[in-house]
Design a protein that fits this description.
Elements: E1 2-7, H1 14-25, E2 30-36, E3 41-46, H2 53-62
Antiparallel strand pairs: 1-3, 2-3
The structure holds copper (II) ion (CU).
């Protein structure tokens, strides 16, 4: 397992946090996602053989938020 922290911009409430957490955890290969509204970030533990950071960021973008590199 690998752990990475990505930026997540555009969240404004706990609903956004749950939304982002849900889309990250829905990805095959993601083991855990800890999303922080205050820090505008998500720390994700994942299997690098099954999913990569680009896919994590894409999932955040697809959910309507921004994940700048
Ligand atoms: Cu919200």
């Amino acid at each position: 397992m690998t752990e990475v922290t990505i930026k997540v911009e555009g969240m404004s409430c706990g609903g956004c946090v749950r939304n982002v957490t849900g889309v990250l955890k829905a990805l095959a290969g993601v083991d855990a996602a800890d999303v922080s509204l205050e820090e505008a970030s998500a720390t994700v533990r994942f299997d690098p053989a099954r999913v990569d950071v680009a896919a994590l960021r894409q999932a955040v973008e697809n959910a309507g938020f921004d994940s700048p590199a």
